[in-house]
Write a structure and sequence with these properties.
By secondary structure, the chain is of the alpha+beta class. It has seven helices and 17 strands. Strands 8, 9, 10, 12, 13, 14 and 17 form a seven-stranded antiparallel sheet that branches. A five-stranded parallel sheet has the order 1-2-3-4-5. The protein has a three-stranded antiparallel sheet with strand order 11-16-15, with no helix packed on it. β4, α5 and β5 form a beta-alpha-beta unit. α2 runs parallel beside α4 and α4 runs parallel beside α5.
């Protein structure tokens, strides 16, 4: 499909349209584009409105639904602003407060989606707006954030998510980049820390999020979700966003007794601020882009229907549980 316009709610603020620009004028221009596109290439689907945030989406999304009936609803999200005062930090990116605000933002997006029965896709997101911020967007903190946010977006019911990137800028947000123009021209990209978070979650494609409730006797900066695969297996995603040096957290997940021991795929680095040395399952992404996980992963038993895992701060893990084979009588 085609998305007409990029963050159209901000056009007047960026002097791309005259004062008085609003969603009604936007809808008129979208209709004109749709007619022209239909003449040139009949049957092309429309996506939109691709607004800058969920509050704008609550104003523009319902109008898009009524007037355009797009095949896909879209919007954008950046948890931190590049022009914020004081300046954004990794600690702020990984804070429980930021995760809570992201949950409320997703709820606004998905409320319009559910009311209209049109799927919603977060078609642009990353750490800090305006291309990112060096020391945050290119650090291991971005990988931990990506794990938590992609997982949270899936759990909310979105149909997909796209991480924004600029392959020519290794200091900003980009899962893949080239350190200089010559390598960029050759297509010789390298994996940034954020890419590892995406790599860890690739096995979640096709799974279904389950209702998950986190109970703790004290405040924890922890994200936990459980998803079910088509063959009945479970994926458990745990991200511990506590600062490096804090005590490990023991997570107990009540999964029932019908599962084999879980395998644990760990995402780690020396600290949230690390710019290199990120590993997934103890392995790095090779210069040619390949990643070969270890032949064997640590196995965590399920005892009394409970899976217990101790996770260190500033780490994320994917636990995979396969159902036990049924015995015939």
């Amino acid at each position: 499909g085609i998305e007409v316009g990029n963050e159209p709610d901000s056009y007047a603020r960026h002097s791309l349209r005259a004062a008085g620009w609003d969603r009604a004028l936007y809808e008129g221009q979208v209709s004109a584009y749709r007619s022209a596109i239909a003449r040139a290439a009949p049957g092309i689907a429309l996506a939109g409105p691709g607004v800058s945030g969920s509050q704008a989406f609550q104003r523009w999304g319902p109008a898009e639904v009524r007037r355009q009936r797009p095949a896909l609803l879209t919007g954008h999200h950046y948890p931190l602003r590049c022009d914020a005062v004081p300046a954004p930090t990794s600690e702020q990116l990984l804070s429980a407060a930021t995760r809570s605000l992201e949950g409320r933002s997703l709820a606004r997006y998905l409320s319009v989606s559910r009311a209209s029965s049109i799927r919603f896709r977060m078609d642009e997101t990353n750490t800090v707006s305006c291309g990112g911020k060096a020391g945050i967007s290119n650090s291991f903190a971005s990988a931990l954030w990506a794990v938590g946010y992609i997982d949270q977006t899936m759990a909310a019911g979105a149909s997909g998510v796209n991480l924004q990137g600029n392959p020519a800028n290794c200091l900003g947000y980009s899962p893949l980049c080239a350190p200089d123009s010559a390598l960029l021209a050759k297509g010789a990209l390298r994996a940034q820390p954020e890419y590892y978070g995406m790599l860890m979650l690739r096995s979640l494609v096709g799974t279904r999020p389950l209702a998950t409730r986190l109970v703790s006797s004290q405040p924890v900066n922890l994200a936990v979700s459980v998803l079910r695969g088509s063959a009945g297996g479970l994926r458990v995603v745990i991200a511990d966003d506590e600062a490096a040096g804090e005590s490990p957290t023991i997570v107990r997940v009540h999964v029932g007794g019908r599962y084999q021991p879980a395998t644990a795929l760990l995402l780690s680095a020396s600290s949230p601020g690390a710019l290199a040395g990120v590993t997934l399952g103890g392995r790095s992404v090779a210069p040619d882009g390949s990643w070969h996980g270890p032949r064997t992963l640590p196995r965590i038993p399920v005892v009394g229907g409970v899976l217990s895992f101790e996770i260190a701060p500033s780490r994320a893990v994917l636990l995979t549980l396969a159902p036990r084979a049924r015995t015939r009588r």
